[in-house]
Design goal:
Blueprint: H1 2-10, H2 16-48, H3 54-86, H4 89-106, H5 115-143, H6 149-176, H7 186-203, H8 206-211, H9 228-242, H10 246-275, H11 280-308, H12 310-330, H13 334-361, H14 368-397, H15 400-405, H16 407-418, H17 423-437
Helix pairs in contact: 2-5, 2-6, 2-7, 2-10, 2-11, 3-5, 3-9, 3-14, 4-5, 4-7, 5-13, 5-14, 6-7, 6-11, 6-13, 10-13, 10-14, 10-16, 11-12, 11-13, 12-13, 12-16
Length: 455
């Protein structure tokens, strides 16, 4: 216990609500690491998709990913606005969490050739995890001060890498030596691993619900309509409101571009490596190394941001991703995959964490969930576009290598737009809007759950 408290202090998580919030990154990383990045793609390629041509299986996997993330993209802003005004961030987070947990358990029932059921569960699980993260991210704006955002966000990613890596290490033993656990083969071990993900994700989500206060909504604000017309009306209103925050909008455009490349690498690298003939042991070992490297590097990005600023640290990360893209194109051996995993581990957590915290600094507290819903739209548009472009390129050319090169344009264009973001101007606009709405600068705390607003 003393070691754990020391780790939390070193990460800068000095208050109970900050620790509880960061633990949700630890919790959901089990799904992201095991189901999205490592075990399920391998299981899908080798077991669930039996009877399908390899290229067809890859295309359907990418298409289901696109549909699932597109669903969250449409729902996020209106649900975010609803939760901001009704004070229901944690309730909506819990709903998406429940969906994700049920879908993850459903993966344990996938057998040889059950590609349709596998993709249904995988798609619903993606909706669950990405939807829950929208509301978790929005809570960050309410519990952390402006000067804490980079540190707390990167600490969350560091804990995510650590938690996901620990579970993945245990699962690697399970998959390599299934007989030790009374299991007949690696396929059975994979199904057991999906159950462990659900247990891990659910258990470590509990502190957030117990320790993080529910933000108080502005009094008298009308609730958005929960109808098809109301959804699109709310999307239009949110987009119109974003025009008040020009720097946040510029960051979103930059994020739309460069996160396309990042998301595609995360979601398709294991499937790509499998297609190139890299063995399961090498794939899992390399991605486990990514988790291990990601822990200290995410923390270092937080420290670098406090010294040189979030934007320069992000620019460095995008330069590294350009190198990763070239390496991915020429990759032909496990050594290359390990090198790629090392580079990705260095910058993946830091780039995502700083994107999250930089955006949080440039939006008002009283619209945090709504704006993070829009952040999710931009993220999901790219997450939809990346797999679709990848799948279309494979279909047209028969080569996944050429699809990898398309990522270079996204990183370059994203960096060009990011360079134009005026961070200080964005912070000023957000603070002024909060002041007009009657919100002060004090974050929510466990001791003073109503401190977010000045009435």
């Amino acid at each position: 216990m003393r070691v754990w408290d020391s780790l939390m202090s070193r990460l800068g998580l000095t208050r109970p609500e900050l620790r509880a919030w960061a633990m949700y990154d630890w919790a959901n990383s089990a799904y992201v690491t095991t189901v999205i990045a490592v075990v399920f793609p391998i299981y899908y390629a080798s077991v669930a998709s039996k009877g399908l041509e390899r290229e067809v299986a890859t295309g359907r996997f990418a298409a289901v990913t696109a549909v699932a993330l597109g669903t969250v993209a449409v729902l996020s802003p209106v649900l975010g606005a609803l939760s901001d005004r009704a004070g229901r961030l944690k309730a909506l987070l819990g709903g998406f969490l429940a969906l994700g947990l049920l879908a993850t358990v459903g993966l344990a029932g996938v057998g040889p050739g059950d590609w349709a059921w596998a993709l249904v569960c995988f798609g619903l699980g993606n909706v669950g995890v990405t939807g829950s993260i929208v509301f978790s991210d929005a809570l960050l704006r309410h519990i952390a001060r402006d000067e804490e955002l980079d540190r707390v966000s990167t600490a969350g990613y560091a804990l995510g890498y650590l938690g996901g890596g620990l579970l993945l290490a245990a699962q690697l033993v399970l998959l390599v030596k299934p007989g030790w656990f009374g299991l007949p083969d690696a396929a059975a071990a994979s199904r057991v691993s999906f159950v462990t993900v659900a247990l891990w994700w659910g258990a470590f989500s509990v502190p957030l619900f117990l320790r993080v206060p529910e933000p108080r909504p502005p009094s008298g604000a009308p609730l958005p309509r929960l109808s098809l017309t109301g959804v699109f009306s709310q999307l239009t209103e949110t987009l119109r409101a974003l025009r008040q925050y020009r720097q946040a909008l510029l960051l979103l455009v930059a994020y739309l571009l460069y996160s396309d490349g990042i998301g595609t690498i995360i979601r398709l690298s294991t499937l790509y490596g499998t297609e190139l003939g890299i063995g399961q042991g090498a794939l899992m070992g390399a991605l486990l190394m990514t988790q291990a490297v990601g822990v200290p590097c995410a923390v270092l990005f937080g420290k670098a941001a406090s010294r040189v600023g979030s934007k320069p640290a992000l620019m460095f990360a995008l330069a590294v991703y350009v190198v990763v893209t070239f390496l991915g194109y020429f990759m032909s051996s496990p050594v290359h995959f390990f090198a790629l995993a090392l580079l990705v581990g260095m910058v993946q957590g830091g780039s995502q964490a700083l994107s999250r915290s930089l955006f949080a600094q440039m939006i008002p507290r009283h619209r945090a969930a709504e704006m993070f819903g829009l952040f999710s739209v931009f993220e999901k548009v790219t997450a939809v576009a990346g797999p679709l472009v990848f799948a279309a390129t494979v279909e047209l050319t028969g080569s996944s290598r050429l699809a990898v090169l398309s990522l270079l344009g996204f990183f370059g264009a994203g960096a060009a737009v990011l360079w134009r973001v005026d961070v200080e101007a964005g912070k000023r606009a957000a603070r002024e809007d909060d002041a007009r709405a009657g919100w002060n600068d004090a974050p929510l705390t466990t001791a003073a759950p109503g401190a977010a607003r000045a009435d």
